[in-house]
Specification:
22% strand; globular
Length: 208
């Protein structure tokens, strides 16, 4: 059983990323269940997507990941990574975007909100940790709108040899085929470029 939790804020595309991962798993013949927990997403609230995959042919009876059992947590924002950290398994992998996005409350209050302290905390707290410069990859592709696919592909590429092998099971081409079935044709090329660029840079990203 593989458990992957994708955490972000409203508008970042965490639900779409989960849908693509689930589609890729289903194409392998795996049993898959997904669920979303959404908190005021349209106002910048948190969105958490659960993807549970029976990679050994087993049935998946419940869609929600229990705390402490996520093989991989993919965080599209550093603050949401801290919120999702309790779900990570004792030998799990946390993949986190380096860009911090302040909440409306933080912006209105004028409080300082930076990613660096959060990333430093996460690097110490997570069993295995990878910080992804998703903005640089998005800029190389030409759009910040594909950050969700950049993070998903980075996590799949990085998971090999940690505590589970998502990369062994789902490669770049399989993600691309799943993506093509889930997004509008006008956005296929841009999202394909995001997946390929993330995989190309995966080896240069150190995992702690």
């Amino acid at each position: 059983m593989l458990n992957v939790l994708i955490a972000g804020i409203g508008g970042q595309g965490s639900v779409l990323a989960a849908k693509i991962l689930a589609a890729a798993a289903q194409a392998r013949g795996w049993k898959v269940r997904t669920a979303e927990t959404i908190g005021m997403a349209q106002r910048g609230g948190n969105v958490t997507s659960h993807v549970r995959m029976g990679d050994a042919g087993e049935e998946v009876h419940a869609p929600l990941i229990a705390r402490g059992t996520a093989d991989c947590v993919i965080a599209l924002e550093a603050g949401e990574a801290v919120r999702a950290l309790p779900y990570l398994a004792p030998d799990g992998l946390l993949v986190c975007a380096q860009t911090a996005i302040p909440s409306v409350e933080t912006t209105l209050s004028g409080a300082l909100y930076e990613a660096e302290p959060l990333l430093a905390y996460l690097a110490d707290a997570a069993p295995h940790f990878l910080a992804v410069d998703e903005a640089a990859i998005c800029d190389a592709v030409g759009s910040r709108k594909v950050a969700n696919l950049v993070m998903l592909a980075s996590a799949v590429a990085a998971s090999h040899g940690v505590s589970f092998g998502l990369r062994d099971a789902i490669g770049a081409e399989e993600l691309e085929r799943a993506m093509e079935a889930c997004v509008k044709p006008a956005f296929v090329a841009m999202n394909r470029a995001a997946i390929e660029e993330a995989f190309a840079r995966a080896g240069a990203q150190p995992i702690s």
